Amino acid sequence: MELFTTIKKEKDKELQLLIDTHSHIYHEDFDQDISATIDRAKKAGVAKVLLPNIDLKSIPRMLNLCQQYPNYCYPMMGLHPTSVSEDFRQDLDQMRQLLDKDKYIAIGEIGIDLYWDKSLLTQQISAFEDQLKWSIESDLPIVIHTRDAFDEVMQSLQRVGIDKLRGVFHSFGGNGEHLKEIMRHPQFMIGINGVLTFKNVKLVNYLSSFPLNRILVETDAPYLAPVPYRGKRNEPAYILHTVEILSQVYDVPAQEIAESTSQNALRLFGFST
Description:
36% of the residues lie in helices and 15% in strands. The chain has eight helices and ten strands.
């Protein structure tokens, strides 16, 4: 698939279009071909790849990749909800200290996940709300992971102060009512990935009601590879397939999707162009 890959900015500066706003390419699945993976991403027009953190162990791998590819890979700081344990407090304390030692573009990925296990809900809520406070203290956007827990996430946002927060609901897969609720809070966007390309996905039926200027594109690599790569390792270059489906949903050219979603990412994460 070919996509218009550059746009003209002021002073005739060329800027590659796409920003993969959520990718775990520091994962060991990429250890053998990370250079080739980055090359393919660049050829596909991906200008930046944003890296959400998972736990304490993932931080060195993530930061190392960002050092290898400065101004291309950008790190976030956060404890993934499925990494929250009964003694999560120690992990959070260490992460909070690390947050001040390097430059991070967001607090993420954080949230509540009740799909596999509900036994640590209290701990997940506490960890999530602590990290929401980091966002306010650091003036950074949040990247939210929510699975079977939309109501719980919204309650936490309200308790901490949703008007003081901004961010993205990563890998959005909620229903129409969830979309309407997010729409009420203009400082929040939604992240769309390869799931949109799957057969019989209901999201395509109501996504167009959500403003395009609040849509981000992402891969969540190495997970959730789009059709025609479903079931295989995902990577940033495959983001083009999500862009293509979004162009059909919104009935606009693919290059307009690319430009709009990239400008949205630049705005949310505070990049200068």
